[in-house]
Design a protein that fits this description.
41% of the residues lie in helices and 15% in strands. By secondary structure, it is of the alpha/beta class. The strands form two sheets. The chain has a five-stranded mixed β-sheet with strand order 3-5-1-7-6, with helices on both faces. Strands 2-4 form a two-stranded antiparallel sheet. α5 (121-142) packs across α6. The chain is globular, with a radius of gyration of 17 Å. The N and C termini lie close together (11 Å).
Length: 187
């Protein structure tokens, strides 16, 4: 049995490079609405998808678009269980700094417990455990399952898969778009 966690394709995301903490709300909304760049899916990921007995994805549009680049024909609806753990942000109108800085600061703060305007790391982690259990059930039925997911939720799901006896990568931080992480039952 295999469970393959894949990070979605690269969004065509054109946002201001500098913003205030409050403006991160609009930055996040534009990122969530961005279309995925077509034609960047690596052949190796296409092969993994074609060999999977079941392909599932997050309900966020960038994952559904990415899955559509891999799987032809009818597809199941995306599932919010696999959606990304969104960035928190502050309601401050200063200072204006690079959006990349705010993303790093707010994600780090989120891992430390700051969750204004989003679910907490604890809630996301519980959701990831349920997602891991669902993927395991699908793998027991279909043999090989591919999840088209996101960076942070894939990290949390991968951690739960390892805790539940699956072998696979320990660290999924900073994985590039379209990057697969393969987990197998037992070692």
């Amino acid at each position: 049995m295999q469970i393959i966690l894949v990070r979605h394709g690269r969004p065509d995301h054109r946002n201001p490079r500098w913003c205030t903490p409050r403006e991160m709300q609009a930055w996040i909304a534009r990122y969530n609405a961005a279309r995925v760049v077509v034609g960047e899916a690596p052949p190796a990921v296409r092969t993994l998808a074609s060999q999977a007995g079941w392909v599932v994805c997050s309900s966020l549009s960038r994952c559904m678009q990415s899955r559509s680049q891999l799987v032809q024909g009818p597809q199941h609806a995306g599932d919010a269980l696999f959606a990304e753990a969104h960035l928190p942000y502050l309601d401050w109108d200063f200072p204006r700094l690079p959006a990349r800085f705010w993303r790093l600061v707010f994600r780090g703060a989120w891992f430390l417990g700051f969750s204004r305007h989003t679910e907490s790391v604890r809630v996301s982690d519980r959701r990831a455990r349920v997602a891991a259990e669902q993927l395991i059930a699908l793998a027991e039925t279909h043999g090989r399952v591919l999840l088209m997911g996101h960076g942070i939720i894939n990290i949390l799901i991968g951690r739960h898969l390892r805790r539940l006896g699956w072998s696979g990568p320990l660290h999924l931080f900073l994985r590039p778009y379209w990057s697969p992480s393969v987990y197998e039952k037992g070692a």
